[in-house]
## 1
Amino acid sequence: MRQTTTTAAPMASGFAARRIGRPLQYVALACYVVFLGFPLLFLLLTAFKSSQELLSPNPTFLPESWNFDNFAGAIDKANLIRAATNSLIVAVLTTIIVTLISLPAAYALARFRTKLRTIATGWILLSQVFPFILIIIPLFLVLKQIGLINNLLGLVLVYTVWSLPFALWMLQGYVAGIPVELEEAGAMDGGSRLLILRRIVLPLLAPGLVATSLFTFIGSWNEFFFALVLIQDPKLQTLPLTLARFVGAEGQVQLGQLAAASLLATIPSLVFFAIIQRRLTSGLLSGAVKG
Amino acid sequence: MKRRAALAAGALAVAGVLTGCAFGGGGGTSSSQEPSAEGPVTLTFQSLAFQDTTIAATKEIVDSWNKDHPDITVKLQQGSWDNVHDQLVTQFQGGTAPDIIHDESADIAGFANQGYLADLKPYLSDDVVNAVSKDVWSTVTAQDGSVVAAPTLMQTYVVFANTDAFAAAGVPLPDGKELSWDDFQALAKKLTADGKYGIGWGLKSPTATVMNLALGFGGTFFDNNGGSSTIHVGDAELEVPKRINEMTYSDKSIDPVSLTQSGSDVLPGFFDGSYAMYVGGNYVAQQLTESAPKGFHWAVLPPLAGSEGTMQAANPQTMSVAAESKHVKQAAEFIDYFMNPTNQAKLAEGDWLIPASAPAREQVAKDTEGKNGWSAMLASGESLTAAPFQSAANYPQWKDQYATPSLQKFLANNISADDLKKQLTDGWAAVGG
Amino acid sequence: MSTSTLTRPVPPVAPPKRRRRNTGPNGGGRDAWLLVLPALIPVVLFSVYPLMQGILLGFTDSKAGLNAVVSFNGLENYARLAGNELFWNSFRIGLVWAFGVTALQFLASLGLALLLNLDLKFRGVARTLALVPWAMPPVVIAIMWRLMLNPSYGPINEAMRTVGFPGDINWLGSFSTALPAVIVVGVWAGMPQTTITLLAGLQNVPAELHEAAAIDGAGVLHRFWHVTLPALRPIIVAITTLDLIWNFNSFALVFVLTAGGPGGQTMLPMLFAYNEAFRYGEFGYAAAMGNVMVIVISVFLFLYLRGQARSRLS
């Protein structure tokens, strides 16, 4: 946060440049707002249009009447509730597990300078390069052997492993941001290590912990590829799967319902994202980028 | 150096595990029928029914079975036509396939060859066997003679007409036993005017349509001899795509955009009068009755006839049993029940499809009194024949990777008929024949 | 990120400057291992091990089939791949997609980041909007753009009709427009990470540098080119590298948008390999494709990063 204001507008100094440049800058900004915002607005409006209106040859931009039928229809037809429950179970469990196991590991990575750190960093970067197709086939086999194919727990396991690199990386950044002196001071006061961790480190780490867990949640909530391969039973489908099926569904196109379902599915990640976005853009980065 | 050695050792260890557990090996849990010790059995049945009416009909059949068979409970599970192939590949591989599998004959030849489908021959009753023609049974018979599925419903491609548009253009609705392609073409031209097209044809996935309609010109595409199939693409095979191309780009009576869309995307244009005719599977009739705007009047035109007649491929939907199912016998019993004429008629009426079973067809004719286009549709079902493509094992891959792209290109007027011929032929070689 | 799988946070571009030495009074090495163990076990079991297996699988003839036997077949898969025109075509599409999206994404994001770094009104709105795609499931992004690009009722064609252009283009369905359309969606979906990273970078460019240059009489463009860009360089390299990898490996977005169609025009390598494995049951062959993808992307990365490192030195 500390960085946001100090260097704002370094480019616009110079009065002459500003006078010519300003209107152009606003035009450019407006273009970005349209490009980024219009699809969202359109999705929103579509969700409120009746099916007659959507199929009419002369569509109006705003819905003639705002109706919520599409939301009801989507929930009913696409089994949205069941899918959302599945997604919720998977995302919550993943988040809990990831947080629990990445916390000690992140602490170790940040505080102890061992080979581990190099290996972990290497793995985090390397794991990005490998296409998922290489992993999914054998993973499918491993999960089959332990009976976790077509099983939400299997999905939790996979998401845990694949959210871990970034969760670890984020968290260790936050740990590194906590001055060691505080811990040393605690140790001098005779506190045991565990006590120091609980009393001093954890409270300071809380905001970072929240950000990391919400990030993990969003990642699992949105994930598609692993779910596509690992979940076959329609009853166990997560939201992205259900939505993808809904698009492909043969027969009549229910655009309004599709839009409504998509909106509903986005709400949780959007809310969580809103909570952490400040932190993402300032806290994490100004710490991390300043290398 | 040390690190490299360690890596190599690790790789070897992994290799051992890999070959040891042979990815794809049956896992050993279940090998087919143990003569099930008496006791209640639960079977999963993955249905692909997607229209509300058929879903309801399927549920009804399952419910009544469950009521009569307290010891064999069938659990209904909903699948989707869009991804059934991928889904089955994964399910068979993971050992999680449902006991009773709904699919279509052109899609299951490969699974049959891979040994995933149980032979139903020992379990099907004579009534069921005799109700379906030999020709249709041949579409679900594997190379080794085992019957890998029971054929249920069949679709044909039919021409739907907006009768008001015909009236407005002063064009009489064609009647008679069949509609020749020449007449169809002339009709489309007459109905094209004022920015409206004679035909909207959702041909985003053109292969199945072309395979089916080509039979009317004697275009069979494949020769199956024993285990392998060879392709031949000649004038007869190319006639249908050529005509569609001509109608689109010379006559301009087919909307070229519709050719790039799916059938359901084109339907709104048919409803709002942009197209006087719409070509699609006969199941679309269900959507017409259900969701056409008020005051929209439609009819089914007589079946399209090529030089050889109105033949189309009998590519029935199928009911199979997974070979790895622990209760093959019970699952087959359910299929036998599912196949009885009353049930088949119920499903056919829900989906507006043609039952493979002759007694069921009679039942449908009686129930519907031939109204709402039923007589034309049932008539088109008379000339369904087995087509070689259904038994060509690599057909699904050839269709995805070669036939569909080249047909799409040809229908977009991007390549010539000769290119199309070459790509279809070379493609078959590339997927390994 | 966009598309391939788990939503990714902005990459922490460089490790924190303040490195701490081993502080544990009693060595710490063993403690460290103990603390890391709970994370290490699942990673090894469900990520390192499958990955190793996956690589090896690329040298086998593993196929779908009941009780199918798997055996090593050396380089056979690769010989077969060499002659597989469709695969190489898909590779070409994948590279066009990955480089196209990455480059456009970078330019668009840099522009936006520069604007957001100015003291403009409403920049909060733009910033918020720029972040939204990040939170959206790729599947939803794809659905949304399918609605936008629909030939009959999509607003894009509608707008074109209003302006007097032919408004009946099936963007995702016709051969010439499908790949460009998909690339635009890819740019939209991936802009947040890039923008935010670049913005953070811009905010860390010391203001004194600009002031000094301004006093020397340097114009805006001159300062951008000679002060801002060089200062941003490490961040640009890092984010474009990651974007490139993510885009090359992306899946969900295009899977839902076009599933590779029409006629394979948008068949990204990941989609191609997915089909090979889970439609046609060619598991070994698909894994071989994955191996080739790793090698190609590594080569590109190597060349790119080496190029960057060299020009930085010179």
## 2
Amino acid sequence: MGKADISLRIFFTGVGGQGTLLATRLVGEAALEENIPVLMSEIHGMAQRGGVVESSVVLGEASSPTISDGEANIVIAFEPVEAARALPKCNPKTILITGTTPVLPFTVTTGQATYPAPGALYETIALHVARLIRVDADALAAEANAKRSANVVMIGVLAGTGLLPVSQESWKGALARILPSKLVEANLRAFDAGYRFGLQSKGKPLH
Amino acid sequence: MHELLMEPGGKPHFLLGNEAIVRGALEAGVRFVAAYPGTPSSEIIERFTQLAPEAGIYTEYSVNEKVSVEVSCAAAISGVRSLCAMKHVGLNVAADAFMTLAYVGVKAGMVIVVADDPFLHSSQNEQDTRYYAKLAGVPMLEPATPEEAYRMVIEAFEISEKFKTPCLLRTTTRVNHCRGPVSIGSIPARQGFAGSFAKDPFNLVVIPAVGRKLRLTQLERLKALRAESNGSPLNFSTGRGELGIITSGVSYLHVRDAVRSMGLEDRVRILKLGFSYPQPQALIGEFLRSVKKALVVEEIEPFVEEGARLTAQTMGISTLIAGKGEGLVPREFELDPVKVKRAISTFFEIPFQEPAVTAAPQLPQRPPNLCPGCPHRATYYSVKQVFGEEAIYPTDIGCYTLGILPPLKAADFLICMGSGVSTAGGFSTVLDSPVVAFIGDSTFFHAGITGLINAVANNHRFLLVILDNGTTAMTGHQPHPGVELTPQGRIEPKVSIEKLVRGCGVNVVETVNPLQVKKTQKVLQELKANMGKTGVSVLISKSPCPLFENRILKKTKKIVFQSDGSCDDTCGKCMKELGCPAFAVDTSGEKRAVRIDENLCIGCSVCSQICDAIKPKRIS
């Protein structure tokens, strides 16, 4: 199957300030490096004000930038509660990669709501998807001396799993192209840390 | 060099729809751009402003959308290609100018980009702006992707100039905020923005006699435009089969996915309308004749559908047409491929397996909120302390609309930009309760001034609080006429809000820094005591948006606030009345306590002024 014949929908979700849009763009630019047809969509109405940020990348034959419920092949969540909130996008074949650091919404910090116990949350998610990959992206970023690049760690994990037909060179080329030059080195370290983690969960390509 | 001025050639660029529009307009030789920011269109004027000095074009942040259309049409009448960009509701503000400009027309191309927001991601309604094309009788193009947006803005300039009419480029959020590959061409050499004006008052000054003449010209022009849209390559059909789908804009992409995943490529023909007004009737008629049934797939209103039905009736075509309706295409919110599959399944009677959708478990909500240290929170806190629950609080459009949330609950009525001021006048006339209205600085310039003059002239009785954070914060910190902080440093404001308010005839005008809680409340008490005597009083609550200030001045945080542990949350004033997102209830110890997240706190000090247990802490 040629690269143009693949059809993949990737849904991203996180909280304003987590760098989800840069991470999403990285996936889109890397696909472009590989000449894969790609569209990316961003919804960031009030992101700066602590709200949920959702974005998507569709590759190959898939042409609508909007991912319907039940139609995401991959979900990248930068926060555990947001991973669970994205369950309607998933189906039993979906692969869900989530960061494990909670970002408490103010509804929780002010005592109006409670943050669910992570264990139970992951159990629920795992029931409904083909594979749940949990990543302590903050720890991996810190180990790589790239504390502020947990978002790029997550993309490294996606790259490492080999789910997309994108080479290491294309990932890194995209990264170098879209980031300011002084940030490239740290982000390459973050990407590598994620990549090594992703290799452990390497699965059959989705294409 | 700005990235949107790059040389042509090489790989396609991964551009945001709004960036593709900017690049396309530059290649089309645009030399004059004016806009008031509004999601999802704001990046257009932002990018233009960034690259204007290099590109040698004129750009301005206009005070509102009506002004942007007026300044731009003057450029276009003087032979300078111009562009305005606005969100859908912005065209309501500009409608007066737009409707008659459609009579007068232009000399050089003029494109008005108008961005609809189905699902109201960041808007107060989901009106379908396509009806404005019909109402004004101007041509309209509807792109589906960034690549199309790029090509169509170039085509829009050509159509505009050829037919001497402004042209609408109608986008939706999924086009403006979609990124996709765009293969670019070259930008013509810089020409500056000097124009020339040929006096021609009996075609340019719309007195009734001129208007009558222009009305006839406009109707002739519409006929010619219809012929153009019938032959336009922007309207095309794909696929083969006895079933038909007519679609436009981003819905085309949903349709393609739906048809492919249902395996209907050999049964369904798709007519995609890119030049969607005037509707290509001959083309639609021909399409309708070629299929047994036709489904119209479009977001929001049945705009194309009504035209297709009219075409069928006019041309005596009996093909069954459907669009909006029960089990078919929803009229509310955005479409997606599954919604389209459902409509296809119902109308064409083709089985379709609904995806099994998992419901999300019960989760804490994550609504947007005023940022930690936001001066609006401090203003709302003090106003509520002084005026309490009995006052009526009309509000306006901006970050500060988030004052609706508890515990502040400082928003009782809102319809549009500027309504805070004018509705306050109405409320104060028919209600006994005190009325305290809120409006932001940028919104005040945009649509609040006339309401204030109206209130003074008609002796309305209310307090107007102008929340002056020194920028248009909501849409990404664009400037307005009263800005003092600029990337070049601090300047005298070109228009002082205080002088402006006094000039409107308001005699009681106070300015406070809301981060000084006691002072602010003292002033509010005085204003409240005088409310019976005076007509309109104005409080300018002035403190810069910290996100903006920190970015411009590169300020670093030196102080945060911490609870010294001497309080439990039994008083709860901080949580129940101020509600800064940096506060957290800590239940881990023996007694519940309120803690302040050091990373979130920006050191505004407001909480320390309402609770003795909160103390500053120096950080390195």
